[in-house]
Every structure is written in C-alpha cells, then in structure tokens.
TrEMBL record:
Pfam families: Globin. It comes from Hippocampus comes (Tiger tail seahorse). Residues 18-167 form the Globin domain. The lineage of its organism: Eukaryota, Metazoa, Chordata, Craniata, Vertebrata. PROSITE patterns: GLOBIN (PS01033). The keyword NAD does not apply. It catalyses: Fe(III)-heme b-[protein] + nitric oxide + H2O = Fe(II)-heme b-[protein] + nitrite + 2 H(+); 2 superoxide + 2 H(+) = H2O2 + O2; Fe(II)-heme b-[protein] + nitric oxide + O2 = Fe(III)-heme b-[protein] + nitrate; H2O2 + AH2 = A + 2 H2O. This is superoxide dismutase. Residues 1-21 are annotated as: Disordered. InterPro entries: Globin, Globin-like_sf, Globin/Proto, Globin_lamprey/hagfish. Its EC number is 1.15.1.1.
Amino acid sequence: MERMQGEGEVDHLERPSPLTDKDKVNIQDSWAKVYQNCDDVGVAILIRLFVSYPSSKQYFSKFKNMTELEELEKSAQLRNHARRVMNSINTLVENLENPDKLASVLKLLGKAHALRHKVEPVYFKFLSGVILEVLAEEYSDVMTAEVAGAWTKLLATIYTSITTTYKEVGWTTLSSSTG
C-alpha cells in the first residue's frame, strides 16, 4: 500500500520560501557530510522510495522487476542511477548562489523526466519526502530542525521548478496522487 499525503496536510512543497544565506550554509555544510557517502545514501534513498511508493519502480526498466531488497541493493543499474541522483543534488547544492545555473539544471531535469521518461511529477514530491526521511535518519547529528527546514525549502524549490517545466512542455496531468 502506498503512502499518500494526508487530508488537510499543509503541502510545503507547493509554496516554497526563498533560501536565506543561513539556509544555504546549513544545506552546504550538511551536504558535505552526506556526499562523502553518496553511493550508499543514494541507494538508501531509491530503495526507500520503492518501498514507500512501489509504483515508482515502473519508471525504471532495468530494475522495475526486482522484488528482493537485497537484489536491488546489489544492482549496478540502481547504484548508477543513485549516483546520478546524488550528483544532480550535488550540482544544485554547489550552485545555491547561482540562480541561473539552478534554473538551467532543473529545467533539464524536468524536461528529461517529462518528455523522455514520462514520470508523473508527483513522484518528485514523494522523492523529496524520502530524501528528508533518509537524511534525518542517517545524519541525525547534522539534521537539526533548522537544517531540515533549509532542506525542505530547497526541495520545495526543486519540486516547484520541475513542475513548472512540466507545464511548459505541455504535461497535462499535474495530479497530486497516483490513483
């Protein structure tokens, strides 16, 4: 059973707040620790996404039929995709002071996922929540409430930018659920 956003839950991803200078420092400092283990963290994030939202596997032809967690964890294809996800996040974190670069990277990501991969945009919302969960669990010493708040703002900005790109390329179903 997939998790769904609760009724009446405030959707912080739909209305991002701008990042403050302190937010940017918090994100970059915490990311420096996370990125040291980027392969393992990326795999943990993708596996959590697949466990929490099993329908998300449909977009991954190379490992969508893998049902065992151990098989997924050992999959070279999953590890490669996890590294791409982490490298994309790293590019965004490195360029927090460069809004043009951020916009460019997010537009490319949005176009690729809308046009080539045909991923429903709601999965970016799911992924954002999973990223926050995994970082909070794996890096509880770093992910204070203030740092988590900064990450929430960044992930909201990413989600909003990607869904804006989806609309620009003519994506017609910006649903908030999968069913």
